[in-house]
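Hi all, long-time lurker, first post. I run a small reading group and we've been trying to get comfortable going from sequence to structure in the token notation. Rather than ask abstract questions, I figured I'd post a concrete chain and ask someone more experienced to write out its structure so we can walk through it together at our next meeting. Sequence below, copied exactly:
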Amino acid sequence: MAIAADLIVRHASDAELPWVDGGGGIELKLLRVSLSTGVWVVRNRFAPGVELPTHKHTGQVEGFTLAGRWHYREYDFYSTAGSYIHEPAGSIHTLHVPEDNTAPTEVLFVIEGALINLGPEGAIESVVDGELTLLGYQALCEANGLPEPVGILRD
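-- Answer (accepted) --
Happy to help. Here is the structure in token form:
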């Protein structure tokens, strides 16, 4: 029995997708990019003390903390291993990893659309989406002598 192409279950192997150093204490592993829907899935590892620029999401985001501890400066909760978050489209926040963490923090994010990095006065500084992240991930793999990441799920 043939299975329709859009119903085939696909698998991303952890071993086929290397961690790359994104700079500033941030490592990433890109798992999936859908150019048709704008959804992208990324695992991030953040060193203690990392703070991302304040940013706005054009679509919703789901996050699952695998290890460590982090929070958004604008909220009073901390996400720890096993925590799940849902961010509605349009949310604005600043991700921060406490300096006193003793190990990297690892989070899996499922992102719809883009994130818009904002400057101190709220001006747009950059826009990052799945396609740009895919190109950056591939370039970082190449620059570090890593094999082309063939396991990324793309549609």
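A couple of things your group might point at:
The two ends are 23 Å apart (CA to CA).
The CA atoms of residues 22 and 28 lie 7 Å apart.
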